[in-house]
Amino acid sequence: MRIESRLAEMGLELPEPMQLPPGVSLPFPWVRILGDRAFISGHGPLMRDGSLPSVLGKVGAEVSQSEAYDAARSTALAVLASLRAALGDLDRVVAWLRVFGMVNAAPGFTSAPAVVNGFSDLILELWGPEAGSHARSAVGLAELPFRIPVEIEAEVLIR
């Protein structure tokens, strides 16, 4: 449980599963395992209890770039919680392969890569440069579900 020990040393806790709004159902798994790969559906930031954070809206308008960076870091914790639930142990992740970050961007906001760094920086801190390094895209979109500022999906290699 090396990764979970590192999280504890950093004072970080994984959130509970997302509390979906009433009437919302998702017809897909948070993590789909196929062979030695785990494909992670798009996740957003969560509070410790699985609820949506209070910081919602468009980055560059209602949400600052700094708040969005923190939301991307929180999104990483939500992704890790889903991976732990699916794999039983985060140490089964041997490499981060691909990350796709989406930012709920106000018109003219062009710093999506700096926002998604909140996710990438935490993954690199936890797994190191060899296993944590990943291919990545970071794009600004007109809207995201539930007005979340960031949504991130990923693919990892597992053992």
Concise synopsis of the structure shown:
The chain has 159 residues and is an alpha+beta fold.
Which structural class do the helices and strands define? alpha+beta
User: What share of the residues does DSSP label as strand, in percent?
Assistant: 15-25%
Q: What do the pLDDT scores average to? A: 97
State the strand order across the main sheet.
Answer: 1-2-5-3-4
Helix content: 25-40%
Overall radius of gyration? 15 Å
Main beta sheet: 5 strands, mixed
Question: Using DSSP, what is the number of strands?
Answer: 5
Query: Total number of helical segments?
Result: 3
Description:
The chain is α+β, with helices and mostly antiparallel strands. It is 33% helix and 25% strand. It contains three helices and five strands, in the order H-E-E-H-E-H-E-E. Strands 1-2-5-3-4 form a five-stranded mixed β-sheet, with helices on one face. Helix 2 runs parallel beside helix 3. The mean pLDDT is 97.
